[in-house]
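To whoever picks this up:

The nightly regression suite flagged GGDEF domain-containing protein as changed. Nothing in the input moved, so I suspect the structure step. Input below, exactly as stored in the fixture:
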Amino acid sequence: MAGTTRCAYDTSDVSGESSHRRNARCLKALALLYLALVGASFLLVYGDAYEPAVHMLLFLAACSVGATASVAVLLLPVEQFSGGFSGGVYALLAASTAMMTFFSGGTSSELYLLFFPLLLAAALHGSWRVALFALASVLLFYALAVMPGLLNEEADASVAAPVLYRLAALGLTGAFVAAASRLSSGGGEEEYIVPDEDGSLLLERVEREISARRGVQVAVILVDPGRGVEDVEALLERVRARIAEPVLLGEGAVFGMVLSGVGDREIESAARRALAAAGSLGAGETRAGVAVYPRDARSAEDLLVAAGRALEAAFEVDSPSAIVLAGRRAAREEGRRAAR
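Regenerated output under the current build:
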């Protein structure tokens, strides 16, 4: 994602940064949990009460693989966490867990329980593909971990039965997670609208556009559809499909858009179409504030501040729908001071 640009009519990347942020949050939380579980597993296996035979050096090596992978996930940037990369992380953690299981007793090891957090965490992505890949990885690697014990000549039904039960439990859990994820995503491609609580996502997008396209206009449009809008999610989907990818700000209905490489006429048109989309969904009073780099501000932070002030000024307009451009607002204010 880093270094890419997006104009008002480029909507090929429907998931955008929102899905990457969601994947990053899920995997970073899982990485912290997995580190704790690896530590707890080492204490369990190292204790005198643990009965199965343990290859301690190889077990420690397997633990180090999982711990190293978890630390790497914590250090990676958000842009790295695509759907495919997320599936690869689950496969790596499943392989590490399988090695820990094999070297701590194989068929008699209790560390198979570490597979369940992987399956449950996959559900948080909202992607049935990630959940299905996690399930396939867990079943494959656990089967490889217990296969040598099952093929042993001394193995009997008392050994095979618990293994089959565990495989069934893992399979049913993973199947439930994948089905729930598919239903929640409507069976199609994942499209996430994650609220930007502190404005960091919108700020990152503005900074990236400014640095990637120096000398080109970058506009920030803040839209307040008002309280009368019937379906905020439907509004954001319309804006995404027809104008640009929106960023929902906080818990309300206010959202922002970033347009680059377009002129003033296209910017105003995008703002008007966003307000029209809100009006078509029942919004009574709609407002938009627009600021353009480098005309209205010289940095990403100042550009967001200028757009916010323009949005506040739009509420001063006595009209059910209003758009205020930061540059024109400033020019009007200077003209009023001169007249005085």
